[in-house]
């Protein structure tokens, strides 16, 4: 396929219509810059580049400022920053999100990958700084996609139930969601959920997507900060090794995942498992530190076909048929 000149690459000023998802804890300057250097759009996720958690909002913002500068030292290509939006459309913008977006703009970031609910005020602030907005509703619906487009999103992400991380509340697969959302809006739509090889990329375009948004497959690359034993576990695992550890999260089997999975099917359990996973450190213990006893390994359902640990450039060439 010829990618140059497509709407998406022109909007984002990148070479290829491929965006690396802003995975929590499992991104850093090295991975993000490698994706951008290879022609895609690398995106810094929450806590990118760090191994410890801070609850100080100012420190969180300054940590990200430092990581942005590290990316700048490694590439002059565009890259993005994740913005989490948990409020409703017309809710006032909280101080942390305001400062997060402002800091990014101060550092010259113009690509914002927002996840959650489309926000009139957040989108307005990003646009005020000349930003480009790639928005992903956690559970895609026609109404949510159209609302985000109306509020100014430049690109939208259609997420299938096949994805890793926090999955949509509706069990609709990528093949169902993508064409529905493509037909509902006029801006470019990215497909995400279970895309791990060239066949998945071709399928996404056949469904009407103008690009792909990929997380899990970038975890198993040489530049990824994920622990080596986690990469090996993904390579040697398959769909049958996965289980629900909460109503909205899956994991490859680990000792911690087994404990959470048992609670998930226990009808007498009153513990909010998504909150419990967050309290335990989210993806940090398992995926960043490689501590399988205390952590989970969240990936998409298509991991059976992940059998190698290439460089980011080699992976992008393979995904796009450039090798």
UniProtKB/TrEMBL annotation:
Q: Which CDD domains match?
A: NPD_like (cd04730)
Pfam families named among the record's database cross-references? NMO (PF03060)
Keywords of this entry: Dioxygenase, Flavoprotein, FMN, Oxidoreductase
Domain of life according to the entry: Bacteria
InterPro entries per the UniProt record, alphabetical:
Aldolase_TIM, NMO
Signal peptide, first to last residue: none
**GO MF annotation, one:** nitronate monooxygenase activity
Q: Is Endoplasmic reticulum one of the keywords UniProt gives this record?
A: no
Instruction: Spell out the Gene3D superfamilies in the cross-references.
Output: Aldolase class I
The name of this protein is 2-nitropropane dioxygenase
